Amino acid sequence: MPDQLIFGMEVFLNGLMAGVLYALVALGFVLIYKASGIFNYAQGVMALFAALTLVGIMEGQVPFSHLINAIFGTEIHHFGWHVPALAAILLTMVVMVALAWAVNTLIFKHLVNQEPIILFMATIGLAYFLEGFGDMMWGSDIKTMDVGLPQGINDVIDETTAGWFGYGFFIDNLDIVATVIAAALVFTLIVFAQYTKQGRAMRAVADDHQAALSVGISLNFIWVMVWSLAGFVALVAGIMWGTKSGVQFSLSLIALKALPVLMLGGFTSIPGAIVGGLLIGVGEKLFEFAIGAPYLGGATEIWFAYVLALIFLVFRPQGLFGEKIIERV
Amino acid sequence: MLDQIEGYTTEDGRKIGGVVMEMKNITLRFGGVVAIQDISFDVREGEIRAIIGPNGAGKSSMLNVISGFYNPQEGEVWYKGEKRPQMKPYQVAQQGIARTFQNIALFEGMSVLDNVMTGRIRQMKSGLFAQALWKGKAEREEVENRAFVERIIDFLEIQHIRKTPVGRLPYGLKKRVELARALAAEPSILLLDEPMAGMNVEEKEDMSRFVLDVNDEFGTTIVLIEHDMGVVMDLSDRVVVMDYGKKIGDGTPDEVRSNQAVIDAYLGVAHD
């Protein structure tokens, strides 16, 4: 087999793995968009915030320590204990649910029936607030995250492929774990949305507020639930990205990569977010490998996703899986 | 006069029970506009109660007060012998008061079956995990709910469109699906906001038949709004007539028909 093709296969696999992470972030967007029509710009920052909180809790950091020290002249930074990963994840989830409640009660409850652009602006405000709040709470230094997920090259794949092609593929264990977790998450969400009362209520609210109220669904309950779900997805994404590249501000920028993913997959489709994420992940890696690096001077990964999304917007504005836009005249 | 406590028997022999809901001195204002002014009336178990009046009389506002979409500034709503505290629409729905809308509020993206199933949300009680795992009580519940919904679908003759997304249906069928969803909740009171609005004669006849059949078959108490006098008079047991936010008549269709104030409101009267 020619070398080019073997390398290509490795790039393809790595692209799939990167795509899983895009898909995870996009999933958070879809959940909130479906249920409330809000395009949540803050989804990426939520992932950052979740990751910061998780690391902070695990390491026994005192929240707001800088602020406390500045006011009281104290020198406290750590409680002096470490919290096991699983307990810390559960605690972080509690924080994310509280955040969901606060976001709904303080902001979006008051913006019901406003124009989408106003809701969008509110989420931009929320994003910057949350970014600053996270810094204030946990400090702005780059942190490493280790919740015990396996990392490093997967030896089995390395040896097997070496046996087949004489060249061992480099696939990160973390990426494999991320893929499995993402798949489980999507499966759970789909079962939840299709077959449970709460899921049915969520779809109902997404479709028509008045009708949902008239069958006895509390809008506020559903919105808090959806923001909590999005918080949970953000936490999962935050753990994956945080473990991979450290918990730092750039984590919130992956949110922007989710945009082209959504344009491909459709803003309202959970499977769409996954397929879109994988397509972008694979597409940008393969494009860079086959065309970008040899002919265009590289660094095409920065723009590839957006250009692909632009092409999609022209030919299929509702995305691959989005609901068809029908206007009755 | 009607018996205040015991109820009465209609001409066609249906037994009407005691008072299930009572509106006492309801006043609703929007800023300076008085939409409903000091209106009182009651609804008895098993009856078809109509609220009629010309456009802008405040009929829909009244229905919105009953269903909790509006909160009146003054007055009390009594339901099943208890004064109802201020409630959100979803809480009213959970109490067993289902409604339809004048402009139809359906889940357009969902199938007819799914739409009607949402009406059963009140009856679904098993836990989240049980539902997701389709275990024990949850499975029984889902099967029961499904069976009930299918019965409603049969009853309203919409079997042939069970799987169709509601967004694709014509107006008349949408109205029927909305009725099905409200019925699926097994309401103790069913509120219909202009169920015949925008329909042709044939559709109106169908709808009238369904309203009567629902009342007959399920014993559902129905409160309906119409501005088409003819339809209402044939359907209802008792009628409240509203005009400019005030109650100008209340009684059996015959009583109302011969009420001078009602005749004036509908036909217009010369002011001199």
From TrEMBL, chain A:
Its main location: membrane. One of its GO terms (molecular function) is transmembrane transporter activity. Keywords: Amino-acid transport, Cell membrane, Membrane, Transmembrane, Transmembrane helix, Transport. It comes from the Bacteria. The keyword Cell membrane applies. One of its GO terms (biological process) is amino acid transport. It holds the Pfam family BPD_transp_2. One of its GO terms (cellular component) is plasma membrane. The chain crosses the membrane at residues 12-33, 45-64, 84-104, 116-134, 176-196, 217-241, 261-283, 295-315. It is found in: Cell membrane. It is a multi-pass membrane protein. Belongs to the binding-protein-dependent transport system permease family. LivHM subfamily. This is ABC transporter permease. It comes from Roseovarius atlanticus.
Automatic annotation (TrEMBL), chain B:
InterPro entries: AAA+_ATPase, ABC_AA/LPS_Transport, ABC_transporter-like_ATP-bd, BCA_ABC_TP_C, P-loop_NTPase. It holds the Pfam family ABC_tran. Keywords: ATP-binding, Nucleotide-binding, Transport. Gene3D superfamilies: P-loop containing nucleotide triphosphate hydrolases (3.40.50.300). The keyword Nucleotide-binding applies. GO terms for molecular function: ATP binding; ATP hydrolysis activity. Transmembrane segments: none annotated. The keyword ATP-binding applies. One of its GO terms (cellular component) is plasma membrane. Residues 21-269 form the ABC transporter domain. This is ABC transporter.
